[in-house]
Write a structure and sequence with these properties.
The N terminus is likely disordered. The protein has seven helices and 18 strands. The protein starts with 16 loop residues before the first strand and ends with a strand. The chain is 17% helix and 25% strand.
């Protein structure tokens, strides 16, 4: 279960965008559904309280394309609220972007996290701020919904770990985007749990395999359009990140502690590759991952991880 709670949202009808499918048994369906393709009736919608209001689009990528540089249109929300809602407990919440073009991740973007991984997992990191951002990708097959049960990777790995992170959803693609224009290209913000098999990550050095097991990228449940944050800021620098395992708080941090902010990251990545609408940038995790404890606190079957 993952939630994005923001105290700066303007009112109770702030847009919280999601992708959902109706299901007679939503809990059962969520355990086996990783992509919108698993449901013929999946479509984007808006969540208000416990109600879900469908949007007249086939996919979240269609919403993003229609939004353009102007972002999510409040008229769409007003029109949606005129419809009869669905109850959230009667739908299956998929990832708000079930099939993002690319999942682009940032390593070592919080100082305290750099210290903990070097201390407990030498060979993965050095105890210093990297001179340039560490960029890696995750397989899009790792993307799943916020309530999915994720298979433990044993026997391939015995060291499954969590990383609560702010996700940035690209709205308008582009190449060579300067930092000061980055906000124009952002559609909104979400949450990603960057699940990781630490032993596989360390063994291969390149992090792709250790980060890309099926279901290792729970996203959502919602995207908060950028205009719904205070001032419509392109780079939300004061959002808290909290991760719990079985109710125990493991991570507490703030995006104000990021070494490189959203503008820096958009500028760096787009200097090399063209960003596309729907790309998800996963901006790094604060301290408190399982590998950072002594002894480590890796995830076990039936553990419940919550990120907000």
């Amino acid at each position: 279960a993952e939630e994005l709670r923001d105290e700066h949202v303007r009112d109770n009808h702030a847009a919280r965008l999601l992708h959902a499918a109706t299901a007679a048994d939503a809990a059962s369906a969520a355990r086996k559904a990783y992509a919108a393709a698993d449901f013929a009736d999946a479509q984007p919608g808006v969540m208000v309280g416990d109600d879900v209001y469908p949007l007249p689009f086939k996919s979240m990528l269609d919403v993003i394309d229609a939004a353009g540089f102007g972002g999510f249109k409040r008229d769409w929300l007003d029109d949606a609220l005129r419809q009869a809602p669905l109850k959230a407990n009667r739908v299956t919440l998929l990832s708000p972007i079930p099939n993002p073009p690319t999942v682009i991740c940032i390593g070592k973007n919080y100082q305290e996290h750099i210290k903990e991984v070097d201390t407990q997992m030498p060979g993965i990191a050095k105890d210093a701020v990297p001179p340039v951002p560490i960029i890696f990708t995750k397989s899009t097959s790792s993307v799943c919904g916020p309530d999915n049960a994720v298979a433990h990777p044993s026997p391939a790995s015995s060291k499954m770990d969590y990383e609560g992170e702010l996700g940035v959803v690209i709205g308008v693609g582009g190449k060579d985007i300067p930092k000061e224009d980055a906000g124009k290209h952002v559609f909104g913000y979400t949450i990603v749990n960057d699940l990781t098999a630490r032993d596989v990550q360390k063994a291969h050095q390149q992090w792709f395999l250790g980060k890309s097991f099926d279901g290792f990228s729970p996203i959502g449940p919602c995207i908060i359009p950028k205009a719904e944050l205070s001032g419509g800021a392109a780079d939300p620098r004061a959002l808290s990140i909290v991760t719990r395992v079985n109710g125990e708080v493991r991570q507490t941090g703030s995006t104000s502690d990021m070494i490189r902010d959203v503008g820096d990251l958009v500028e760096c990545i787009s200097s090399c590759v063209t960003l596309r609408p729907g790309d998800v940038l996963v901006t790094g995790t604060p301290a408190g991952v399982g590998a950072g404890f002594d002894p480590p606190k890796f995830l076990k079957p039936r553990d419940v991880v919550e990120v907000e």
